[in-house]
Specification:
With 364 residues, the protein is an alpha/beta fold. The chain has helices spanning 58-62, 138-151, 167-178, 190-199, 214-219, 233-241, 264-268, 285-297, 314-323, and strands spanning 5-7, 10-13, 26-29, 33-35, 46-55, 80-90, 100-106, 110-113, 119-121, 158-161, 182-187, 204-207, 224-229, 243-251, 272-275, 307-309, 360-363. The strands form four sheets. Strands 5, 6, 7, 8, 9, 16 and 17 form a seven-stranded mixed sheet that branches. Strands 12-11-10-13-14-15 form a six-stranded parallel sheet, sandwiched between helices. The radius of gyration is 21 Å and the shape is globular. The structure holds NADP nicotinamide-adenine-dinucleotide phosphate (NAP). Residues 167-291 form the Alcohol dehydrogenase-like C-terminal domain.
Length: 364
Amino acid sequence: MANQEIVNRKIVLRDYVVGFPKESDLVLISNEKIKLVVPEGSENGVLVKNLYLSCDSFMRDRMSKDCSYISPFTPGEPLTGYGVAKVVDSRDPEFKAGDLVWGMTGWEDYSLITRKDPLIKIEHTDVPLSYYTRILGMPGMTAYIGFMEIGSPKKGEYVFVSGATGAVGQLVGQFAKLMGCYVVGSAGSKEKVDLLKNEFGFDEVFNYKEEQNLEAALKRHHFLVIYFENVGGKMLDAVLLNMRNHGRIAACSMISQEHVQNLILVVTKSIRMEGFVVFNYYQRYQEFLEFTMKYIKEGKIKFVEDKAEGLESGPAALLGLFTGRNIGKQIYGTYEFGKPFVVPLLTLFSPSVSSGRMRYYFLL
Ligand SMILES: NC(=O)c1ccc[n+]([C@@H]2O[C@H](COP(=O)([O-])OP(=O)(O)OC[C@H]3O[C@@H](n4cnc5c(N)ncnc54)[C@H](OP(=O)(O)O)[C@@H]3O)[C@@H](O)[C@H]2O)c1
C-alpha cells in the first residue's frame, strides 16, 4: 500500500482574486499521484488523510495578494485551512499512523504537514470528529480565550456579543450564560434572533439591521460590563456610549471595517480594551478542552453545524459562506447530501439566515 501511487485531488486557487471571489477562482485538480509515505528529506513530516475541512471567513482575505491578516494562498497550490485528519505516516515522534488530529491542513485528499502550527492530537473520540473544526477547534478556542481570559467574567455581569450567531459569537454567549452573566446579542435577521434566544439561551437579542439607533437599542439592555467585539464601526461607537466605567472589551474582530468615532470613551470611562489572535494561545488548548468537554458532556452547550459532502463541493461551500447562496435550509438533525452520517448529539439544525455568513465544513 505504501509504495502504491494514488491520485491526490486538490482544490487550488487559480490566481489571486481582485474583488469578490467567484467559484471559478477555485479549481479541482486531480493530476497528481503520491505514495502514502512521508518522503525522504521531509524530517518531522506528517502525512495525513483529510476527513473534514472547514470553511472560515479569514480564507476570503487569503485569496487576495494584499491579504494583511496572515500569508495569502499561493496560486496553483491547494488552499489551506483548519481540518480534521487521520495520520497515514509520520516522521514526527509525536504522531503515529492511525492518530486523529486537527489543525492546519490542505484542501486535498492527503496532505504532508511539515509546519505543525497547530497540529493537535485528538484524544476524545466520543464526540463527532467534526466538532474539532468548530466547538473543540479554532472558533471554540477563540471564544474561550476572548471571553474567559480577556473578558474575565463574573457572575451577574452584563455582556454584549456582536456577530452573535457566528461560530465564535454563539459560543461566547453560551459561555457567558454558564458563568451566570446576563447576555445580550446582536444579529442580522429574525431567524438568527430567534435562534439565539430560543436555542442558545441569550437573554436579549436585537436585529441590528432593523434598529434606527444602535445606541438606543443597547440602552434598552442595561449598561454593559463586558463587550465581545466582532463588528467594530457604528456598533462599537454605540457600545462605548453604553459601557460602564471600568468595563472590558475583548476585541476579536472588526468585520465592518467602519471608522470609529467614540474611541475617546475608552479613556474617559477607563475601559480596558484588548485585542487578541487565537494562534498565540494554542498552548492553552488542554485547559480549553477540559472546560468545554465538561459542558458538552453535560449537554449544556449547543452548536450549529452545516455540512457539505465531498472535496468537489468545497468551492461552492466556501463561496456560500460569503454570498449566502447556499442558505435557507432549516433541518433538524444532520444536514447531508444523501448519505446517513453519525448524528452529532448536539447539532440542532442549520439556521435559515439571510445575510450569507453561514459556517460550512465539508467531509471527504
Ligand atoms: N482574533 C482571532 O484570533 C479570531 C479568531 C477567529 C475568528 N476571528 C474573526 O472573528 C470574527 C467572528 O468569527 P466567526 O468565525 O464567528 O465569523 P462568522 O461565523 O463568519 O460570523 C461573523 C458574524 O458577523 C456578522 N457580521 C458580518 N458582517 C457584519 C457587519 N458588517 N456588521 C455587523 N455584523 C456583521 C454576521 O452576522 P449577521 O448576519 O448577523 O450580520 C456573522 O454571523 C470574524 O471576523 C473572524 O475573522 C478572529
